[in-house]
Amino acid sequence: MIDVIPGILEEDFPEIKKKIKLVEPYVSWVQIDILDGTLFNNSCFHEAQPFSDLDTHLLLEAHLMVKNPIRYIEPFFAAGFQRFIAHIEGFDEGQDKENMYDFINTCHTFGAEIGVAVDLPTAVDYVFPYLESIDQVLVMTINAGKSGQSFEGEALDKIRTIRDEDPHMHVEVDGGITPDTAKLAVEAGATRLSANSAIFQSDNIKEAIEALKASGSV
Hints:
Blueprint: E1 3-8, H1 13-23, E2 29-35, E3 59-65, H2 70-78, E4 81-87, H3 98-110, E5 113-118, E6 136-140, H4 155-165, E7 170-174, H5 179-188, E8 192-195, H6 197-200, H7 205-215
Parallel strand pairs: 1-2, 1-8, 2-3, 3-4, 4-5, 5-6, 6-7, 7-8
Helix pairs in contact: 2-3, 5-7
C-alpha cells in the first residue's frame, strides 16, 4: 500500500498548524521539513516546543535537512515526532561513519523510526551500509532545500537500486511529486510519496491526495 505524506516547509508555525489541519482528515502522516541553514542554503521554522501543544491525531515525521542532526532528536521526540530522517550529507566531512550510527542509535534509544535521505547529486550507494539498521530511505527527486521544483527522472534509478538491494525497504520520494511523477516513482519501487505543492496549491485538498493515492496503484 502506498502512503501519501504531505510535506510542509514553512517559516511560521501558524502556517504549519494550518496546513496540518487541512490534510488531517485524509492522511495518517505529515512530514515537517527542518532547515536551519547549516546544510542547505535555506531555513524555515525549526523549533520543537510549539509542536508539543499541537492538537492532531496525525503522526509526525521530521525531515532533518541539517548538519549534525542528532541534536534535534530529543526535543522533537518530546514534542511528539515519531520518525526522523537524516541526510547522508548532514555529517561533517572527515568524520567517520559512526556518526550516522550515532544518529541511528539515538533514534533507537527514543523508540523512533529511522530514515536516511539522499540528495539528488549524491550516489545512493552511500546508504547501503545502513540498510539493516533503518526503517526507510528517502530519495530526493529534486535538489533538497526548496519546494516547487520539478521532478528529476534521474532519481528513478536510485529507487530501483535500493529496491534491488533490499526488496523490503520502505522508499519515500520527495520533490516534484504529482500524479504523473508519483506513478513513475511507484513503478520504480517507491512506497511513500511526500508531496507539497501538488497538495497545498490544489483547489481541492481531498481530491489532490486521492489522485496521488490512485496514481500509486500500479
